[in-house]
Amino acid sequence: MRIARFSIDGNVAFGAVEGSAPDELVLDIIKGIPFADFELSGTKVPLSKVRLLPPVLPNKVVAYGRNYAAHAKELGNETPEVPFAFFKPSTSVIGPGDAIQYPSYSRELHHEAELAVVIGRMCREVPRERVKDVVLGYTCANDVTARDIQRTEKQWARAKGFDTACPLGPWVETDLDPADLTIQCTVNGAQRQLGRTGEMIHSVEDLVVNISEAMTLLPGDVILTGTPEGVGPLNVGDEVAVTIEGIGTLTNKVIKRG
Q: Rv2993c-like N-terminal domain location, by residue (predicted)?
């Protein structure tokens, strides 16, 4: 099931995305929230009539760096022996179609296409065999990075945590095996990144186990799983799209921060 979060006539709701042709997609409005038992209302609205929002509002976004060997190499870094985590604040999250605001203190903004894991229930110290039980589904993410700031500051808070640095969407796909999916990024229609999630050094299971050893994960929390090689610059006016097999495409435009 594809679960979207959207707004219509000033109201925010979740809905199940139905259909295959882009111009024929409809939302069956969900009674309740997707983090508990819910029913479909049967009330349907065309996707074209709503505004898609970030599919979840996470309490925290846990991101993993250098989880693809080729990406670590392209930036001159070693691959970590154990998963390497950092955080992006909830205020960095935006949805499909929202603008990425180029931070005024950076001169080198980069895209990073990533598979995002959405947590579906409160959990801690999750054993590997139960990871599937705590995952609601998967969505597309762009770990937008001020690369020049990342190089000069030991902590990545400003480089990766600025407002609009975490586009998510377009929806959460709940019925998906994340083990080996195509992941790509285009900028203004030109391909920049192309890889497969099977190239990850540490799997989704590894990452959920790793972070849940340290902290409680809450429904709607997001885990970013790293990016394949091919990261590169974004400029004001660019349109960047992240596409993941079995999920869809997340598109955002870069604007100057006002």
A: 1-55
* Region of 188 on the Ramachandran plot (φ > 0 left; ψ -120 to 50 alpha; else beta): left
Q: What is the pLDDT of residues 165-179, one digit of tens each?
A: 999 999 999 999 999
Q: What is the arithmetic mean of pLDDT over 199-208?
A: 98
Enter the DSSP assignment of 212.
H
Do residues 81 and 87 lie in contact, with contact meaning Cβ atoms separated by under 8 Å?
A: no
Is 0.85 topped by the overall pTM? yes
| DSSP code, position 205 | H
* Domain at 61-256, CATH from 3.30.300.30, 3.90.850.10, 2.40.480.10, 2.60.40.10: 3.90.850.10
DSSP character string of 223-243: EE----S--EEE-TT-EEEEE
The pair of structure tokens assigned to 255 is 């604007």
54-87 pLDDT, tens digit per residue, is: 999 999 999 999 999 999 889 888 888 899 999 9
